[in-house]
Amino acid sequence: MSETTIAGIAGRMPKFIRRADPAVLTAFACIVLLLFVGSLYSRSFLSPEYLLQQLKVASFLGVIATGMMLVILLGQIDLSVPWSVATGAMMACAAAAYGPLGVALAIPFGIFCGVAIGIVNGIGVAYLRIPSMIITLATNAVAQGLMVVYTGGFSPQDSATRAMRYLATGFAIPGVPNAVVIWALIGAAMVFVLTRTGFGRTVYGIGNRERAAYLSGIDTRRVVLIAFAVSGGLSAFGGVLLAGYASKAAQSMGDAYLLPSIAAVVLGGTSILGGRGSYLGTVAGVILITLLQSILSVMQMPEAGRQIIYGVVIVAMLLLYGRAPASR
Amino acid sequence: MKDWRYWLAEQRGTLLAFGIFIVMFTIYTSNHPAGFTANVVQTASNKGVLLAFVAMAQTLVVITAGIDLSVGMIFLLTNCLASWLVIGTGIETAFGVVAVLGTGLLCGAINGAIVIYGRLQPIVTTIATGAVYFGIALLLRPFPGGSVNEDLADALTGRLFGVVPASLVALLAIVLVVWVPFSRSVLGRAAYAAGSSEMAAYMSGVPIRRGKFAAYALAGLLAAIGGLFLTFFTYTGEAAYASGNAYTLFSIAAVVLGGVSLFGGKGSAIGAIFGALAFRTIGDLLFVFDFDPLWQPLFQGVILLIAVSLGAFALFRVRNRLEWFL
Q1: Membrane topology type, per the record (chain A) (predicted)?
Q2: Contact B304/A327, CB-based, under 8 Å?
């Protein structure tokens, strides 16, 4: 009964709303709700400066979540995000200590290290057929081990290069932080790849049924490998930006990005089983998570309460629209 | 085929884990400065038993073709809770133990309810509930501290008759009380069946939902037993995020080493226990060979990577390429 009435209401709405994913709409509705709740707490919550600041903070998560989304669309998951982020940041800062050439190559080198982690993940998942959740946990542990050996267990002393700081905190276009511009560029590239290229269609195809994609003559293993490499590279790039933002790398800087990046993608309506989802949803998820974090910190919620609210919100929103079909 | 060959095929993973453990432990004790003494065995078993409990918990869920990324956090939560409750007179202590175990059971049941009745994916669900459990642990113990009934703690971490480590006896008791009845019950068989082929099990009228629910709930209980023992060893409660994550990670490594298939339906908690003991021993090998402790995380990570890659050998036996895609 309720379905027919919902369909009736939807029929009268403009076309762009009818075509939109209900999950994406829910996420945007939650963003509006959060902004409203936030404005009750503090008058400056709706000021352009504050919102722009939030967007800047969101862009770090946005870059990382972009890679995560690509992997989740395949029906896989990348749990190596924490130390891919930290490795990217630390290696970029480390390269900066090796003279002018090192400074010039710092950012590419950081990203390269992330891509290397991603390639190991990709080989494990695509060619060795190890469940992605397991191999990425293992590479995460190896990356952590390597970084612990490299830094001697302390946060490294090398600091970020000027280029890294400029990317994270500078303003190339007046009024718009560079980090936001970077996220927009990466996001636009992702949308183009997903919707306009063969690679993107293949990603959706593999996420729906890898066997069918393989039988259609697609080298599914290569696509999976590339997707993991991209995810590792984007995580590391996120780390490079974060290092530029804080002007140095730290041991556990990536830990705070695993759960939010998965949550942002999944809350944005991308199916965790793969094959379904849009980048717009991920953008909504990233902003939603960032605003939630911001409100909790405005409310001076301690870390414990934040973790609890986080977990509860994710489970609750998934129960609303992320459920698998009933077995029959 | 004869009966014993079936038995051998079924227990191959467990026996392999047992073999690895024996070899590693022999190398460990023969290079240990103190040699094979009751003290060395006691210390090793106290460390190994913690991971063994968490690995048993992980096994129950993995058998149903799921995964529980919150075991480490349940372990932390119950540790923090025990540092408040398991103290005082005998009755108070007993009440505290029951409350701690009940909390673990409840955490596991919540995971199970969300995964089975809420129909969400185990990975995302348990990452999210893990965050909640860690948050509660942090509320209970913002700073490390607390205390525990030391008589009970010393009794369970000491030695029986001066030789046998009490923690190993406790582990054996838990196996006999929890794992053996479960794996032979209808619910246990249902958990295996659900992991092997959920569709076939459903069609055959196996109570897969109840079986999976029992597996998740018991996993919480076993993680709580692990948390209780952690409190007995350390006398304190501490909500350390890195430690919870490490236990989750190591439990997966132990399960894989113990011959439990991550695709579900295959393996036993006994194998996972030997996997856990072997993993701990391998990690400690560095110390007897005088390596810098800084190398330990890398060493454990590489072992984990090798352990999970071993499963890839099954690919050589695949005749039809379509079987790559499960």
Answers
A1: Multi-pass membrane protein
A2: no
Is residue A185 assigned to a domain? yes
**pLDDT tens, position by position, B81-105:** 988 888 878 888 889 899 999 999 9
Q: Are A253 and A91 in contact (CB under 8 A)?
A: no
A138, A211, A308: residue with CB nearest B132: A308
pLDDT in tens, B229-268: 999 888 888 888 888 888 988 898 888 888 888 888 888 8
Mean pLDDT of A45-74: 90
**What is the helix, strand, coil percentage profile of chain A, to 5?**
75, 0, 20
Q: What would the DSSP string read from start to end of B210-277?
A: HHHHHHHHHHHHHHHHHHHHHHHHHSSB---HHHHHHHHHHHHHHHHHTT--TTSS---HHHHHHHHH
| Cβ-defined contact of B136 to A149 (cutoff 8 Å) | no
Do B295 and A149 make contact, defined as CB atoms within 8 angstroms?
yes
- Taking the CA of residue A33 and the nearest CA in chain B, the distance in Å comes to 22
- Determine the distance in angstroms separating the CA of A166 from the nearest CA of chain B, rounded to an integer: 32
What whole-number distance in Å separates Cα of residue A120 and Cα of residue A139?
Answer: 7
Least Cα separation, residue B244 to chain A (angstroms): 13
Whether residue A7 lies inside any domain: the answer is: no
Strand, helix or coil at A176? strand
- CATH at residue A212: 1.10.3470
Please tell me if residue B315 touches chain A, with a CB cutoff of 8 Å: yes
Structural domain total, chain A: 1
Domain-embedded: residue A235:
yes
**Which ipTM was obtained for this model?**
0.82
Chain A partners of B249 at a C-beta cutoff of 8 Å? 137, 141
pLDDT in tens, A234-276: 999 999 999 998 888 888 888 888 888 988 998 888 888 888 8
Q: Scanning every residue of chain B, which has its alpha carbon at the shortest distance from the alpha carbon of A313?
A: B128
Size of interface A-B (CB pairs under 8 A): 158
